[in-house]
Amino acid sequence: MAPDLKEYDEEQVRLMGEMCILVDENDKNIGADSKKTCHLMENIDKGLLHRAFSVFLFDSENRLLLQQRASEKITFPDMWTNTCCSHPLNKESEIIEEKQLGARTAAQRKLEHELGIKPEQVPLDDFKYLTRIHYVAPSDGVWGEHEIDYIFFIKANVTLDVSPNEVRDVKWVTPDELRAMFADPNVPMTPWFKLICNTFLFKWWEKVDTIETERDEKTIHRLGF
Questions:
Q1: pTM for this predicted structure
Q2: Mean pLDDT of each 10-residue bin along the chain, 225 residues long
Q3: Which of 94, 114, 145, 147 is catalytic?
Q4: 38 is an active site residue
């Protein structure tokens, strides 16, 4: 049975009504369904899969901006993760697949929504697409993730105005500082962030200033299966 959303934060419940893009295992658009439907484990266990993105934003010193997800979040609350992770929505501007324009547009929208970063500080062309990752991850037994995740790097000097309903805390880190966080059992990390860190992040980070050489438009990496 689907959970009663009355126990959750009102704004986060409203966002559960947004329409995500359903895809097959080859990332072909096959329809749309609500964020709530897409994140229930009972549907994930049946194979329901949706499109997502993950942004890794670096400053001029090549430090990575992390966020700690707000306690109000329905999935993976209070966990540390990369700069911004969310979903392109089933609307005209975000279903565009050419040059990943839909996912870029969604990334720009959510950076402002969650972190208050103005679009002019993160132009669409500055998002460097790297690859796609297909993963599945339970959250608490009821909720979870099953996504094909578009990975973007971007370097920008940004001004933050964090939404407390989305983000509990933020931190700029070096690679060594991030490794120390991973070594601390008291620092909870989202499963997709762990997967990306354990496979790609640190080698990509070394090449952040020439990151376009790592671009792979064809591969969908299956992680955690």
A1: 0.95
A2: 71 87 98 95 96 98 97 91 97 97 98 98 98 90 93 97 96 98 94 92 97 96 85
A3: 147
A4: no
